[in-house]
Every structure is written in C-alpha cells, then in structure tokens.
Amino acid sequence: MKLEYKVVLYSVLFFPGAGYFLLRSRWMGWLCVGLTLVCLGFVMFEASHKSKIIVEQISRGELSATVPAIANAIKNTPSPLAFWQQWFVYGSLVGIWGIAIFDGYYRAKKRPLRRYAATVANRE
Question: What pTM value is reported for the model?
C-alpha cells in the first residue's frame, strides 16, 4: 500500500494526526492529538452537563424515560457553552481532522521518506 494512502487511513480510522507518526513527523502528530483532545474535552463537558440535568428531570418524574422524550430533552436543554463556542469547538474538531488528512496526504506524496522506503524494502 502506498504511503500516502496509509497516512490517510491512519488519520481517518484511528485518530486525527495519527498519519503524521508514520511520516516521522511526531511534533505535528502530537499537536493534532493534543488539539483534538482539548476539543473532545469540551464536547464531553457539554455532554456531562446536559446528562446531569436530564437525569435529575427523570428522577424527579418530570421527564419520562423513553427515547423520544430524552432526545427532545437533549435538544431543549441549554448548553453551558455559548452558541459561538459550540461552533468553534465543533468546527475546530472537523478542521483539525480535515487538515490532518489532507496535509498528511500532501506530505507523504511530495516528500517520501528514505527511512520508510528502506524499512518497507527490508520487509519484502
């Protein structure tokens, strides 16, 4: 399999920026991993906040424990993040993922590593 396809698959399937580690660009890999974890932290904070409110409503009997009722409550529960903050976090997450995929492909296509080629040749 070509290096550029491997880099894209690693970034798509495993974690954003995982393909950089194949290219031996660890700094960029750790940068993508760190930024993604920060964004996922905000997503988990929002999910935790909303779930606590919904669980309280269910335990008090204000909300039935059916899937449509819970889905409606998730939509209507206010977020601890402002609207622009939500867009920033989710947009950053998608942007980091996209940049990791396209930049990894570009780097693998334009600058193949001799060390990688040597390790592949040794395996064959």
Answer: 0.77
Domain that holds residue 61: 3-116
- Please, are residues 20 and 32 in contact by the beta-carbon 8 Å criterion? yes
Please state, in angstroms and rounded to a whole number, the distance separating the CA atoms of residues 19 and 105: 9
What burial class does residue 21 get, using C-beta atoms within 10 Å of its C-beta: 0-12 exposed, 13-18 middle, 19+ buried? buried
- The tens digit of pLDDT for each residue in 18-69 reads 989 988 889 999 999 999 999 999 999 999 999 999 999 999 999 888 999 9
Total domains present in the chain: 1
122 occurs within a structural domain: no
- Is residue 123 situated within a structural domain? no
Question: What pLDDT shows up at residue 119?
Answer: 57
